[in-house]
């Protein structure tokens, strides 16, 4: 089962349903216990609990209550806890009583030399940026990698919108985020701002949540299991032949990268159509490359667009491809053409995957992606009745029914020229092998991100370096699977 992320409303619905069955305060006790356990683990890892220093920043809601109860538990283990109350009159009363009773002290500002700072300003009830008093407390902290305290966010880093993942300015940047029952949308959409996300089981049931409230993330094992590999009865045709249309004789790079990626991602056969056919073959001799579409031969899916140009010939070719009943991936120049000719996909019944970056997305819709990337990608997929993969550090793949798969690349090394051409080749290969556009897009994004991280190992890379690591990235996600698993 992919990892589920939910909206704040859906979280609240599940909490209320569980809360009705439990004694008052049980959920908060479990939540704060999880926060305390996380801090204890962190303190133990760095020398032990007794005599260590933890600071809290406490807002007006239950998020502050979680922080106060967690600190009360820490204080009982000999941790010295101090709290800044941003709204002293409205701080969670029972939490504050527990905090004081176990030796916690309220202070006007956080002292230097803290080991951990708990962000209990706001959780899923937060709106907008950190207000000035909270912003000043966090601005004064030395970052953890420069010897400052580890910042542990309770539920979500304050100033990060729990539903859209919008990182307001200012917002807390957490090293660790501890959340409860189910991950919130922001934990994927704003992954880099949340640090390591730790999920605490508080006994709520989220299995009935609606798809519109949900964002899914595949596990590596799931990507590994769906990766197409040849079985005992396969030949070069039976595994799905992909056709790549990219680049030009003048600009062969996109052609070489996209067709190379298709070769690397799956077994079987890659065909290529375009004026860069000779360049493609000189780099990848296994590609069956021709100059004209009429000579292409049969394929099970097309990946079209990178560097193909936007002239009338390119438009005519794109139209021919989209008029087939084969799965088609459209990227780059193909998307620029589609933005001016949306009628080319209007009546398409066959699987269709568009892979825009933010600029191409704006061309397709006439509006910027904006701060709600999830809502935006869902809207385009629904309105155009196609699957849309919106590129970025966090890749989102929406199908027309509203199901969305997300992938956090974990690093931004893939933000380099030509990396998109590689993604096109990988996803095209998966489409030809029979994966749905959504799974092809999401699985390709995962392997692409892994390949980028493998290639980089701390230094900038080019797209050819990324391509060279795709095979090992596939091995990574398939590690541990049986030989003939398919
Ligand atoms: N409801 C439940 O059953 C559970 C709730 N839990 C905790 O409760 C949290 C939600 O609590 P609340 O609904 O009280 O909401 P929060 O504690 O997230 O914040 C709401 C309060 O903050 C104020 N506020 C909003 N934006 C602000 C900003 N930018 N700066 C300063 N103040 C701002 C609001 O006016 C309101 O008073 C969760 O995130 C979680 O930490 C957990 O204890 C688990 C169980
Ligand atoms: K918080």
TrEMBL record:
K(+) binds at residues 63, 119, 158. CDD domains: YXKO-related. AMP binds at residues 391-395, 420. The keyword Oxidoreductase does not apply. InterPro entries: CARKD, Nnr, Ribokinase-like, YjeF_N_dom, YjeF_N_dom_sf. Its cofactor is K(+); Mg(2+). GO terms for molecular function: ADP-dependent NAD(P)H-hydrate dehydratase activity; ATP binding; metal ion binding; NAD(P)HX epimerase activity. Residues 11-210 form the YjeF N-terminal domain. NCBIfam families: yjeF_cterm. This is Bifunctional NAD(P)H-hydrate repair enzyme. It comes from Gordonia aquimaris. The gene is nnrD.
């Amino acid at each position: 089962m992919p990892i589920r992320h939910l909206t704040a409303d859906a979280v609240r619905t599940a909490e209320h349903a569980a809360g009705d069955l439990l004694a008052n305060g049980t959920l908060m006790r479990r939540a704060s216990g999880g926060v305390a356990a996380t801090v204890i683990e962190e303190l133990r890892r760095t020398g032990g609990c007794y005599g260590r220093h933890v600071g809290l920043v406490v807002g007006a809601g239950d998020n502050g209550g979680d922080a106060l109860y967690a600190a009360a538990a820490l204080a009982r283990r000999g941790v010295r806890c101090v709290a800044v109350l941003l709204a002293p009159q409205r701080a969670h009363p029972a939490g504050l009583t527990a905090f004081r009773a176990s030796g916690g002290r309220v202070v006007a500002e956080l002292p230097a030399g803290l080991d951990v700072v708990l962000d209990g300003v706001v959780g899923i009830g937060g709106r907008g940026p950190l207000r000035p008093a909270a912003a000043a407390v966090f601005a004064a902290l030395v970052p953890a990698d420069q010897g400052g305290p580890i910042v542990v966010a309770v539920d979500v880093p304050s100033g990060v919108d729990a539903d859209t993942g919008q990182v307001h300015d200012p917002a807390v940047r957490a090293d660790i985020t501890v959340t409860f029952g189910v991950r919130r949308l922001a934990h994927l959409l704003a992954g880099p701002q949340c640090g390591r996300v730790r999920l605490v089981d508080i006994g709520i049931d989220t299995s009935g949540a609606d798809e519109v409230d949900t964002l899914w993330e595949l596990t590596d094992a799931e990507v590994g299991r769906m990766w197409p590999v040849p079985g005992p009865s396969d030949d070069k045709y039976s595994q799905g032949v992909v056709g790549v249309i990219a680049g030009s004789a003048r600009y062969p790079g996109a052609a070489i990268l996209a067709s190379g990626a298709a070769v690397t991602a799956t077994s079987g056969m890659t065909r290529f159509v375009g004026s860069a056919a000779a360049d493609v073959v000189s780099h990848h001799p296994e590609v069956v490359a021709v100059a004209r579409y009429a000579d292409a031969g049969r394929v099970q899916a097309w990946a079209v667009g990178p560097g193909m140009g936007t002239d009338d010939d390119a438009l005519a070719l794109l139209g021919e491809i989209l008029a087939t009943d084969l799965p088609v991936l459209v990227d780059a120049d193909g998307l620029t053409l589609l933005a001016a000719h949306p009628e080319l996909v209007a009546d398409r019944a066959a699987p269709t995957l568009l892979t825009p970056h933010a600029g191409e997305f704006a061309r397709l819709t006439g509006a910027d992606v904006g701060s709600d990337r999830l809502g935006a990608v869902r809207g385009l997929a629904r309105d155009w009745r196609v699957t849309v993969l919106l590129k970025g550090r966090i890749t989102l793949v929406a199908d027309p029914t509203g199901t969305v798969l997300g992938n956090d690349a974990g690093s931004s090394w893939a933000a380099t020229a030509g990396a998109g051409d590689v993604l096109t080749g990988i996803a095209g290969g998966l489409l030809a092998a029979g994966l749905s556009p959504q799974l092809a897009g999401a699985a390709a994004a995962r392997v692409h991100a892994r390949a980028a991280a493998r290639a980089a190992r701390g230094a900038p890379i080019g797209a050819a370096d990324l391509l060279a690591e795709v095979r090992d990235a596939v091995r990574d996600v398939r590690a541990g699977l049986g030989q003939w698993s398919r």
